[in-house]
């Protein structure tokens, strides 16, 4: 009987479906546990805040409460004095903007469509990072909460974007999108830009050139895509386009799934020059003629340069008929030239191994 079952495809498929259903149950259980825990933390933070507990029971209140809770609820983590303080901060950060849904409660006005239920979708560890970095700025906190949900960020990825000030950089590139794109696409295209882009995940020598920077970006394409943002798919580097009788090579070509369009990226290690706009605009127009299909939205261009004069950049984008954005990049992880030169190359290491 056992051998028959092992060879029965229907039986094996059924076993596999049980495994998948069990995994789904585990995920649902984890989400449910997280939700209930956050509801408890919210209510505790609310109690402590409304009772004005610290002023009523003294400066050692949190330590005392922690010890008492551990006595009545033993073997449960989460009631440290530090975590109790976070519960208070959790409640006070969001209480004025996001409230639990209550029947006939008309005052519930979520920020940017973010509701109390959304607040319960994010793990507590993520909340603590956001609380630390956003202080009393609820709109900034909700920005990171929404990004975490949309992109399913791990705690490490969230911390990276908190540390690199994504909120302050998001949508800040100088562009002409508003006048060159349909309203709906313009808003989303602006949203996916940053200024500056942070390339601190790269480690290159102090007097790096353009090729070394581009090579480093391609060697770190996963991190580069993460920095670019949601929906970017890599198409190619030094992407070859035959324009008339001329071969042109795009630094980097991407496709953005949210925008449904090609994104042409040129990277310059020098300060922005108006001539860069002419080159980039030509590439964007060529991509529209050669690669873009009828179902694609108009292609956009993004110039990432070392520095820029914002007024000059604004005038330059106004002069272009193609949708183009201009951003700077930051790069702090630099090695001295002589130190970089003393490191063996990949080829040298492989040669030694052989």
Q: Which key features would you list for this structure?
A:
two-stranded parallel sheet, seven-stranded mixed sheet, 354 residues, single chain, alpha/beta, 18 helices
Walk me through this protein's architecture:
Strands 1, 2, 4, 5, 6, 7 and 8 form a seven-stranded mixed sheet that branches. The chain has a two-stranded parallel ribbon with strand order 3-9. The termini are far apart. Helix 15 links the parallel strand 6 and strand 7. The chain is 55% helix and 14% strand. With 354 residues, it is α/β, with parallel strands linked by helices. About 2% of the residues have low confidence. It is globular. It has 18 helices and nine strands.
Sequence-ordered SSE layout with sheet pairings:
Blueprint: H1 2-7, H2 9-50, H3 53-57, H4 61-72, H5 81-94, H6 116-119, H7 124-134, H8 138-151, H9 155-163, H10 166-169, E1 174-175, H11 177-180, H12 183-191, E2 197-198, E3 204-205, H13 210-219, H14 221-228, E4 232-243, E5 246-256, E6 261-267, H15 274-290, E7 300-305, H16 310-319, E8 324-330, E9 334-335, H17 337-342, H18 346-353
Parallel strand pairs: 2-8, 3-9, 6-7, 7-8
Antiparallel strand pairs: 1-8, 4-5, 5-6
Helix pairs in contact: 2-5, 4-5, 7-8, 7-9, 13-14
């Amino acid at each position: 009987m056992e051998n028959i079952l092992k060879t029965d495809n229907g039986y094996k498929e059924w076993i596999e479906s049980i495994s998948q259903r069990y995994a789904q149950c585990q995920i649902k259980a984890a989400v449910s546990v997280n939700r209930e825990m956050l509801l408890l933390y919210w209510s505790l933070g609310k109690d402590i805040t409304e009772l004005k507990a610290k002023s009523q029971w003294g400066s050692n209140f949190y330590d005392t409460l922690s010890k008492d809770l551990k006595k009545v609820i033993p073997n449960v983590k989460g009631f440290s004095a530090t975590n109790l303080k976070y519960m208070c901060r959790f409640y006070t950060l969001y209480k004025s903007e996001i409230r639990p849904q209550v029947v006939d409660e008309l005052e519930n006005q979520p920020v940017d469509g973010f509701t109390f239920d959304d607040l319960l979708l994010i793990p507590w560890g993520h909340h603590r990072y956001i609380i630390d970095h956003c202080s009393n700025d609820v709109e900034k906190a909700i920005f990171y909460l929404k990004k975490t949900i949309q992109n399913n960020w791990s705690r490490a990825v969230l911390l990276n974007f908190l540390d690199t000030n994504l909120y302050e950089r998001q949508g800040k590139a100088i562009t002409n999108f508003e006048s060159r794109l349909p309203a709906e696409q313009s808003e989303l295209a602006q949203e996916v830009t940053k200024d500056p882009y942070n390339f601190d995940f790269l480690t290159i020598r102090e007097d790096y050139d353009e090729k070394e920077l581009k090579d480093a970006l391609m060697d770190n394409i996963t991190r580069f895509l993460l920095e670019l943002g949601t929906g970017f798919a890599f198409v190619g580097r030094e992407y070859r386009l035959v324009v008339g009788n001329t071969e042109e090579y795009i630094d980097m070509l991407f496709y953005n799934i949210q925008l449904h369009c090609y994104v042409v990226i040129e990277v310059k290690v020098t300060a922005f020059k108006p001539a860069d706009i002419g080159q980039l605009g030509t590439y964007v127009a060529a991509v529209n003629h050669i690669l873009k299909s009828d179902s694609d939205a108009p292609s956009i261009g993004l110039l990432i340069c070392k520095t820029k004069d914002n007024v000059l950049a604004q005038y330059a984008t106004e002069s272009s008929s193609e949708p183009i954005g201009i951003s700077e990049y930051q790069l702090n992880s630099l090695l001295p030239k002589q130190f970089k030169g003393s490191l063996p190359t990949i080829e040298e290491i492989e040669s030694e191994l052989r």
